[in-house]
Design a protein that fits this description.
single chain; mainly alpha; 30% helix; 0% strand
């Protein structure tokens, strides 16, 4: 880093940051390709699509078993 300071250049800005793990240069290159391809997509390409309702559900969020005579507020 002392060589950069002596030359008067500043490091390039950080474009993305690795939060966990230790990716190798090939994995970082693959990530950069995917992100650049996504950014290069036409801006209206995904805007017209309606979001579909998920066909799955989370059973842990459903209330417990209720009998036919139980109160369902």
């Amino acid at each position: 880093m002392a060589a950069r300071e002596a030359a008067g250049t500043t490091p390039p800005p950080v474009r993305f940051r690795v939060e966990r793990g230790n990716p190798d240069p090939d994995e970082l290159a693959a990530l950069a390709v995917v992100l650049l391809a996504r950014c290069a997509a036409a801006p209206g390409e995904f805007a017209g699509e309606e979001r579909r309702t998920a066909t799955w559900r989370r059973p842990e969020r459903a209330p417990g078993h209720r009998t036919p005579r139980s109160w369902r507020g």
